[in-house]
Every structure is written in structure tokens, then in C-alpha cells.
Amino acid sequence: MPETVASISLHFALHTDVGRSREHQEDRMLAAANLAGGVWVSEGSNAGTTDNWGVLLVVADGMGGMNAGEVAAQMAVDSVRRYFEKLVQETSDPAAQSPQQSLLEAMWYAQQQIVQLAAGKEDLAGMGTTLVMAWVIGQELQLLWVGDSRCYLWRTGEGLRQLSKDHSLVQKLLDEQKITHEQAVIHPQRNMITQCLGMTGDPISPGYIRQTLQINDCLLICTDGLNGMLSDKQMAVFFEEGVYESPPELATRLITAANDAGGHDNITLAVARLAPQPVIDKAASGRTFTFEGSTKRTSLEQRSSRTSKKSRLFVLCFLMLLGAGATLLCFWFSRNNSSEVLSQNLPEQKPEAQTKPADSSYGKIIAVETRTDTLQNVAAAYVPDSFPAHAATGEVKAGTHYIVVGAFANKDNIRRLERELRKRYPQYSVARTSLPSSSGEKWEVVLTGFQSNEEAENLKAADSKSEKPLLSSANIKSH
Hints:
The protein has 479 residues and is an alpha+beta fold. Helix content is 33%, strand content 23%. The chain has two domains: 8-276, PPM-type phosphatase domain (Phosphatase 2c, domain 1); 375-478, Alpha-Beta Plaits (2-Layer Sandwich), CATH 3.30.70. It contains twelve helices and 17 strands. It starts with 7 loop residues before the first strand and ends with a strand.
């Protein structure tokens, strides 16, 4: 079997909005897509491998008079960044200190900086901020928080659940069973928090949990501008409908919904999805495979691109020299021959007959091919749900069979087809591969994970009897 390289990445999006009622933004957010490499982003989408130092997501919701809230929130995320930059610089081994200890030290450093600044300036007195730090290393989430900004986990088959626990008066009353969850939603003091960075007097007691993640798990980290406008059930609907969309699309839809519900506060959130990185098959033929939402090219692709550019330049130079030589030859021939040179008219080539593509409710079918690709090639495009372990890691086992559902040009329709396939056949893997084309991008959708041709044939036969067949034009292949 060809040598392959597989790892896990976290695809994430950081989005923020001032809301419908506030005049300025007091929320802040930050992410380290690559802690070891010092790659930090404050907005937009990105992806980072969870190997080594992993990926860190940070959200803060400031509070205080005038502009003090945004000062506190900005100082919190800046302090976290400075702490981890120094930690990476001074510590070569990420396992030298526990992640929990590192998160605690980062929080205490941010607390110290905020308190010191507030003590020296009267207009900043009393400022504070919430803080959530979500650190994903491998498939382990290390989560630390102070205040009522939240972290949720969405998992296929389990739905959306809150991982953090609010440091708020309403949560305290709930714990003491003095109010119900229905009363908590409309409680007049539901925005009063019991802990924040910047507070003095009572010691801060941050929340901390460690959670093992699964491939395709989604994290949502948000300020109360989101969960204050949308209930957990309302937010869960967006994940159920769009979990296979990219994190930026999910983030945009959530912010729009919060604003439509009133937008009474600043809305800031980070949406992240755990996925296996594309497998690089060192013996593959050069076709590319990508995950939806991925913005990075592998080093192999970059080298191939550079090589391709050099090859094109060489061919261009060769053709130019050939053309110049042909011109000189024709000139010499015309000078030394008086005979008329007759030009030969080539017969017009007739276009090859084209087969009319089959109709599809999901988009135009470009082709249904019968290639002999191995599963090593298809494996790089896995976007797994609750799939077998070999699919989740991108590894391929001999004896696997798969169904080529069809090739399509419309990305939105492809996503809709993939969602339908995952909902109807969650026990199998859905993959997407790019097809070479001179007329634009074309993508092939593959259903894989079968242990025999018979199993694939039986599924295709059962699908044909459904009200909405998905596999009517599919081909079955084996590895």
C-alpha cells in the first residue's frame, strides 16, 4: 500500500456583529490556527492541525462604563496571546506542562493585566470581561471559562449540549432549585454574572472541563448576544440542517437569526468542526481531493503547481523557437523555389456524439464514469459522520467497495445531495473528489464503506424503491 500521511484538523470561523441595539462593539475574539507557528487570526475562517500544540479559540465579552468593556475584552485576548507566544517560545515540548495549568496561568495573567490597568485609570474602574478558551489538541478539548459566555458541542445523534456552566445569578438560582428553566429565560436579572476577569475581592473560580471529541463534532463558542436571543433548541436546528456546511456559513446563519430575533446585544461566536485532513497519496496520479471549507494547499500540491508552471514555460519557449524556425524555413523555400506552394485543406472534423446527461433533482450530471481508481485516491476526500474508524482517519483497507453516485457541477446541489446521503445512509461514508475539466469545476460524489459488491447492490436496489431515489445513476466499484 502506498505511504500515506493523515492528521486531524479543526476548521473554524470567527464572526462578530454589533447587533441591533448597541452602538459599539465590546466583544473580542481570537484564534491560534497554529500555536507552534504563531499563526493568529482575529476574524474570518481558517483551519489548523490539532497535532503538536493544537488550535486555540478565545472569546471575551467586555463590560463597564463608556469604552471600558471593550478595553477589558481586548486586554484579555491580547494577554492570552502574549502568554501562549511566550510559552511556545520557552517550551519546546507541549507536554512539559498540562494544558489545564497553561490555561489557568493564561487566565491569571489576563486578570492581573486588567486589574492593574483599571487601578491606574479612573475611567476604567470597574471594567471586566468574560473569557472562554477552547484548546483542541489531537481529539481532546481543554475548556476553561469565566463568566456567562458559553461553549456548546454538537454531535451527530446526540444534538447540541452546553459544555460550560454559566457563572451567573440565574445559574446559581437554578442550582439551588429556586427557579425553573422556564423562569430563568425571563428572569429580570438573567444578565447578572457572579464572576468575571477584572473583579476584585472574592477570588475567581474558573470552570474547567476536558472533553474527548469525535470526527465531525462541532464546537460553538459564543457571547450571550447569541444565546440570549436564541434558545438552545433554536440553535440546534441550524446544526441539524447545516452541520455539513462550512463553519463560516453556519456562523453567518446564527448571527442573522440572532439579529432577526432582536439583536439586543453584541453577537460574537466561533464555530469549529473537527475533520481529518486530506490524505496525501505519494503514489497518486495527481488528482486533488479537498474538504469543504479547506483553504490550505498541501506542500505536495504546491510543488506540483510550481513544477507545472515550469513545464508550461518550457513548452512555450520551445513552441516559440519552433515557430521562428518554421518561419525562416518558409522564407528560404520561397526564395529558392518558383513553384507555387499549394495549401492542403484539411477536412472539417465532426464533433463526437454527446450523450445527453441524465436528469437529476440535485443538479446537472456531467458524467457517470467507470474508472478504475483505487480507494487510496478516494480516501483523501472523506468527510465522515458516524463512520467506521478507517474512514474517520482516512486509512483504506483492502476489500472495500464503493458507489460512484455521479459527477456534478453545482456546489450547492452537491452539498444538498451529500446531506441527503448522510441522513439516509449514516452507516456509510460520503466522499467528494474533484474531476479535471477545462470548462470549470466538477465534483464527483462517492458513497463508500461497503464490504462487498452484494452489499452495495442491495443498497442500490433498496434505494430504487424509495420515493426519492438517490442512486439511480450510480456505478458500483471495488478495491
